[in-house]
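Entry 14. Ran structure prediction on the chain below.
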Amino acid sequence: MRLSDCHNIADFREFARRRLPWPVFDYIDGAADDELTKARNTDAFSSCDLVPDVLAGVAEIDTSITVLGRKSALPIILSPTALQRVFHWQGERAVAAAAEKFGLWFGISSLATVSIEEVGAMGSNPKMFQLYVHKDKGLNTSMIERCKEAKFDCMTLTVDTIVGGKRERCLRSGFSSPPKFTPSSLLSYAVRPRWALDYLLREKFRLPNLDTHVSAGTSQSISIQGYFTDMLDQSLDWDMAARIRQDWGGTFCLKGVMSAKDARRAVEIGANAIMISNHGGRQLDGSRAPFDQLREIVDAVGGEIEIICDGGVRRGTHVLKSLAAGATCASGGRLYLYALAAAGQAGVERAIGILQEEIVRDMKLMGVTRLDQLTPDRLRWR
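Output, structure tokens:
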């Protein structure tokens, strides 16, 4: 399979499946329990239809938005995701370069494989840092201060990982950080020699935002489920979130809000934005899809806080439906992770380019020239 054979996100998924050892692919592709929520995240977009206008004069259109205080060329954020150099040796560097090329927001995780300082120095496009609150308070302070020094544009506090979800595919494969070559998985790595050689011979795997304080995940192998459950602070509450917002002092977002009540609390503590997200279906299986919850949350806090619909986005029409339902913009991780795993920076750029083409074409077919023309009357719910 070649990169030129990829015409949508599903194609990149298949390309990644062919390139990666199955434990690594299943880490990207898998979710919690029966994976019902993961499937629903994308399926939810089929619950409504777009209503286009015609004869609207769409020779010139504007796909840009302002979100979290910065302009973005497209209404998409490349959500922060962990362990990217496991999927492709270029890792976060590839995603950062692609985001810079297209003028997009992108984020890195606390569990990134490239440092805060290096990413902060890459390009002038806006960047967010996804903070996982650890039991080690010195580590939390360190990450916040490092992001200030590196001039990150937004701190995004993840609030839905109090414990790790039961990711059964990873339990079966034994996937961990760093990856282990176990008897059960050795064959899967052996039949993907290009991946194995890149992992073994290129830059040594580490989690540079964490390894100054903890060995878990870098020198000490641990499952992601185990990491979340053992290392993260389960006493995290609204008072602590408000203190983190104050300590950070800049643009502040909560990722993982799913209820209107919690959206209201986010407004009350002074958050600038919320990401309606269920962590890609990797935490609480059976929870609602972000798009399913969007209207309820927009009705509760729309106009008071920016609302980002995170998860399940695979098409330009999904982005347009999110905006028409009241979101400020859409975001996702797998929409670029499959492409990263398939072909590094070139893959990410092709995936973003395909989504850009879809958004432009779909806006013209909808008869809109600006994103603010995507209003609720453009949707009909099934």
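The chain is about 45% helix and 15% strand. Will compare against last week's run tomorrow.
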